[in-house]
Design a protein that fits this description.
six-stranded mixed β-sheet, 726 residues, 28 helices, 20 strands, alpha+beta
Length: 726
């Protein structure tokens, strides 16, 4: 355990302006506050904040961060208060301690939700001052170093998994490579002890059989660079067991097949010398194709800069080489922490809002603003942290970094949320491409937008960034709610009509408390989703009154089951009581049945599904028979078509087509000439003479589909065509 004077001396060595008295007071305050508390290892609890402070001192952080490390558990675990800390150590330290304390104060039912909420708070705290994250990472590192003292194996695995999934990627995101590596190694040792032991044993065997190999390679590289007039510091280091294991998994190879177990680093004086050194290395040794990466011209999101290459180096060994400047090396080792101690060779002043320069933090905070569920937020942020990167350019030349597998929709949301929301198409390298196309490094992407457009719910299936997914989900939720409200209000109004009563919103408002809803929108949403019926609303308004709705439901069922049509049902067919269906996006409040593909102009009936809204079927759909025993689910609906802005619907036809050259082309030509658009085509049966197939066609109404069917029947290439029903 580091001693008091050692800690103070280390901090003073990094920053001679350090307030030694304040550091000593923080040390004494924390030691007295924790008193006789003990850790699972049996050590005094104060050893933990002291070791955390020691880890941060090694990173050469400022004295405010070191004092925060000493005090970070006092508010949570002792009787100390933030007011007391502010009075003794100032506003900055108090704010930092508060930021760290907030992360552990939320208790939720499930462990996963608790983890997600803590992660939310972590991002909110670090967005104001990233030193909060540095203290939290050091705190987690020391907890992982002492994890073996925790008796409960399930708890150890949970902590290790949380470290691997949350804290190690966060360390990577702010460029703290050493901390990231150690966190992963400690977690890997707990999560997969057998694999860890196997890799460690093989590394030991490799060292024994190639004792001086690394030093010999370093010596030869140094000599090669000296002869070329390049001054450089060359070093080699063995890769960590977890890094080796991940590479074995990703490449699906054995340990013996890996030829880059050791990585070599060349540190030079300037960026120009980096590229000169690269030329010398490539001139002296054969480069391994596809392994060169230039992170100097296109840095990683965390600010990491370096040249990476792989060559067949000295003694015919395949080796990885990193080339960087001293400043880039400092940042590669310490990441964001380097800003506090390295700036043109001098100690830099800490900017408490330095965290705001990191775009990825801003994007995660934006996800936080548009996500309602904690676990959904955790899912989005994991997507952001775990993916590899791909770099694309806007038409003006701006660089946009995205996860690998990103699409133009992800690109659009990365540029600006409004561009994503109004995106209608994309050009990749000047050519029109589908929105689900995968982007590659170096692509120039132009997003086509339209003011009247909005996100398509299907985009969520192929986007990979958390920002895009959360924005799309937010839009879908808003649209679903507004459509449930619209549908629910129409159902309630219809229920009033069926009872021969005039609709009055004040009467419905008076029933809110009886139906356990706060406002009319909540009530209508419940009705639209099918959680509540219009008849239940009427009963809440007029308790004890005998309703006519049951007769109406039976009449609807008789109409659409082929029975004789009663007079009242006939009048309903002319829209007296029918709920209007118009302008509702399929897949939200209203679903159009895939069994019969209803079109405007068809006689239709709605089937209410609890929690999902209404599914629209044609009146002669065979599927309706399955709902004959649940009349309360039947809903009389009618089309309400906007002639000025017609919506295209999908109709399905069954075709028997002659198996001869040009038949399929003729089929598509006839459909196109009649202003139809083939949405999908599926061959269901084939023989030497004929093809049987389903064809889904986008049309405006049933008469439009009928005219297309008539035109197809006139073709000699088509044996038969009819509309599909059920």
């Amino acid at each position: 355990m580091i001693r008091q004077f050692e800690l103070v001396e280390k901090v003073k060595a990094n920053d001679p302006k350090t307030d030694e008295d304040a550091l000593n007071r923080a040390y004494v305050f924390a030691m007295r506050a924790h008193g006789s508390q003990r850790r699972a290892s049996g050590d005094p609890y104060f050893s933990h904040p002291l070791e955390v402070a020691g880890i941060l001192a090694e990173m050469r952080l400022d004295s405010a961060t070191i004092m925060t490390a000493l005090l970070h558990d006092t508010v949570e675990d002792t009787g100390a208060t933030l007011e007391e800390i502010e009075a003794r150590f100032g506003t900055t330290v108090s704010r930092l301690v508060d930021g760290v304390t907030k992360l552990t104060r939320l208790e939720l039912q499930s462990e996963k939700s608790k983890q997600a909420e803590n992660f939310r708070k972590l991002l909110l705290a670090m967005s104001e001052d990233i030193r909060v994250l540095l203290v939290k990472l050091a705190d987690r590192l020391h907890n992982m170093q002492t994890l073996s003292f925790v008796d409960d194996p399930d708890k150890r695995k949970r902590i290790a998994r949380e470290t691997m999934e949350i804290f190690a990627p966060l360390a990577e995101r702010i460029g703290m490579r050493d901390m990231e590596d150690e966190l992963k190694e400690l977690a890997f040792r707990e999560l997969n002890p057998d694999a860890n032991a196997s890799v460690v044993a093989r590394l030991a065997f490799l060292r024994q059989n190639a004792r001086d190999l690394v030093s010999r390679i370093v010596e030869e590289i140094c000599q090669t660079l000296t002869e070329a007039g390049v001054e450089a510091d060359v070093s080699g280091r063995e890769k960590k067991p977890y890094s080796i294991w991940r590479k074995m998994e990703q490449k699906n190879v054995s340990f013996e097949q890996l030829s880059d177990i050791v990585a070599f680093r060349i540190v030079v004086g300037s960026v120009a010398t980096c590229y000169q050194t690269l030329g010398v290395v490539h001139g002296a040794y054969r480069m391994v194709p596809g392994r060169f990466k230039d992170y100097i011209s296109t840095p990683k999101l965390n600010g990491y800069k370096s040249l990476h290459t792989a060559v067949i180096g000295p003694e015919s060994q395949r080796i990885e080489i990193q080339i960087r400047t001293k400043e880039q090396h400092e940042f590669a080792e310490f990441g964001v922490a380097a800003h506090w101690h390295y700036k043109n060779g001098e100690i830099a002043d800490a900017n408490p809002r330095d965290g705001r320069q990191y775009r990825w933090i801003r994007e995660l905070l934006e996800i936080l603003d548009h996500t309602s569920d904690p676990e959904e937020f955790l899912e989005h942020t994991k997507l952001e942290m775990f993916q590899d990167q791909v770099f694309c350019f806007t038409p003006s030349g701006d660089l946009i970094a995205l996860p690998r597998g990103a699409t133009p929709v992800d690109f659009a949301y990365a540029v600006h949320s409004e561009i994503g929301n109004t995106c209608v198409g994309s050009k990749i390298n000047g050519r029109l491409k589908p929105l689900k196309s995968l982007l590659s490094n170096g692509d120039q992407v132009e997003i086509l937008t339209s003011k009247g457009r909005s996100p398509a719910p299907t985009w969520e299936r192929f986007v990979v960034t958390g920002k895009a997914r959360s924005r799309i989900r937010r839009y879908v939720r808003q649209q679903q709610r507004s459509q449930y409200v619209e549908l629910g209000e129409a159902i309630v109004r219809k229920s009033f009509q069926e009872e021969s009563r005039e609709y009055a919103s004040n009467l419905v408002e008076d029933s809110l408390s009886k139906l356990n809803h706060k406002n009319l929108d909540d009530l209508f949403t419940a009705v639209g989703k099918g959680d509540l019926t219009g008849q239940q609303v009427i009963r809440a308004i007029h308790p004890g009154r005998k309703l006519q709705a049951a007769k109406a439901v039976k009449a609807v069922r008789r109409v659409f089951s082929g029975r004789p049509r009663p007079k009242r049902a006939q009048s309903r067919g002319s829209n007296d009581f029918a709920v209007p269906i118009h302008g509702l996006i399929p897949g939200m409040a209203v679903h159009y049945a895939n069994c019969c593909h209803p079109l405007p102009g068809d006689r239709i009936v709605g089937i209410v599904t609890t929690g999902k809204g209404v599914t629209i079927h044609t009146g002669d759909c065979d599927t309706l028979e399955t709902f004959s025993e649940t009349p309360e689910r039947w809903l009389d609906v009618a089309w309400e078509v906007d002639v000025a802005n017609p919506i295209r619907h999908v109709g399905r036809i069954n075709i028997v087509l002659a198996n001869k050259p040009g038949s399929l082309g003729h089929l598509s030509t006839v459909i196109a000439k009649n202003m139809g658009n083939i949405n999908n085509l599926k061959i269901t049966n084939r023989s030497s003479d004929f093809f049987e197939m389903h064809v889904d066609i986008e049309v405006e109404h049933v008469n439009h589909l009928t005219s297309i069917i008539a035109a197809l029947r006139a073709s000699s290439a088509i044996s038969s065509v009819e509309r599909a029903h059920g």
